Amino acid sequence: MASKYLSALSKQNYGSLTKKLWDIQSHQCFICEEEIDLDLNNTNIDHIVPLANKGKDNEDNFAVTHESCNKSKQDANLKIAKILQKLSKIQKKVQSESNKSASLKDILKKYNGSKFEFKNKTEGNALKFSFTDIGDHQTQQAQIFTDNLSNEKSCFIEVPIEYLFHDEIINPRGINNSIGKLIKEFDKKNPQLHLSLARIDNGKLKIFDGQHKAVAQILLGTKKLVVRVFLEPNIDVLTETNTNAGSSLRQIAFDKSIMRQLNNTLYSERVKKYQIEHELKEDNYSFSEQQLIDYFKGDGANIKKYIVDSIKHSITTLKDNKLKDYIDFEGKAKELPISYSAFDKTILSSFVSNKLILKEPIDFKTDEGLNPREIEIDQIVRVLNILADNIYINKFVPEVGTARIEQNIINKKDTDITDEHLIAYRMSKEEVLVNWLKYLKKVITTYFATNGQMIDDNKIFQTQFDSQLWINIENFVKNLSLLPLWKDRSMASTIFSGKKTYDYWREILETGKSIDGAVVLANPLNFMEMINNSESV
């Protein structure tokens, strides 16, 4: 809504108001809080609280901003826009330093939280505590409630953020796009959604549920949060409930990568429980995956899922995995070529069997370096590194990203899109990736068959690859990336326009033509020819 006040100002008076606001704001942009140089920067004056939200059309409700900040602001309310800009800076910093999404941990760190242990004791039906580290020596107490259904004990207390930590075990996910809505909701003084859940772990008060609620309140300036604290809870139950809340019960859905991490935690807890109940030392893994499933009979299907997900999580997060730098774990960004969803549906689903449960002890031949699960993880990661080395590293440019690539080519706005970037982008499309991975897997299975080895498809990666097979795999990937179609810009408006089906690309690779008869490849894909070095193909 246009400002009648500003419209009535002469150019000179508008400039004077700009200078006045600039001085009030200590020469900083209201939104990004970076310096404004009135001689060099274009500026805007805007309402802090929008007129549509009953903001006043006078000087008390004006702020000066960089013109670019005002045009790109994430909310019409400048107060909210400033908060979201602060959050954006934190997120970018964390992403650049750790290649992870920012979480409650990072917000607490930025706002001087997570400093002290929570000193407490239980007396009768009350929890007694104090916050002496920040100068509050008063002994406080809260009534302990016992849940009628679960018998879990908990209490409600107001806690300074200096005493709050993020529970990365039970709730490892980062901050997602829903945070903006919560910030706006809380800014309207609506308190129903405020409450977060916490537990005491080794003297630290850790928030395991409601991290977005906590983040929103902290960003709005809250220094104390009311939390429900669970006392000596069953960690298995809390973790499993959090998992269900993000999947079957569907609150804010957890990313699949986070679900894997939670299931990995649940798997570890089942292993520990098995060891305790069989009086085994914590380094004794003389039992098998199948024995775990048999022992936890009522939970067998879940245990099987936990085992498989723990393998997938180990592959994805292994430090040596170079491909992970090109996977978008949030599923929203436009900087990285492979969404986690596509990575899961194509690479993980193709390489890790959901059916295979081992009957050998978990530590079988570990000392000899021949443990089947360890071989499986290491070899899959080595394949991923071949993909990274030949398709992505020093080729895909995150600053160019994936947004409107084909459209920019059509519009002749593609000067910053190199051929190597285009190749990586196109080869990473889910419907393309799922199809050429079948040929890569054929390179492996055919090699074993040619050498007289009949290997169970589910155990391919648990069988050690020799040096020639690794050469074949690398040659195939190199030759695949050199096919002309990946960098053919004339296909932007046809073959690569929009999202195609799996069958569309299966037809192209099998026949060399699209389903409507357009020639895409000179010949159908022949993986046996492609395992030769690129000079001879």
Automatic annotation (TrEMBL):
Residues 18-71 form the HNH nuclease domain. InterPro entries: His-Me_finger_sf, HNH, HNH_nuc. Transmembrane segments: none annotated. Keywords: Coiled coil. SUPFAM superfamilies: His-Me finger endonucleases. Residues 73-100 form a coiled coil. This is HNH nuclease domain-containing protein. It comes from Bathymodiolus thermophilus thioautotrophic gill symbiont.
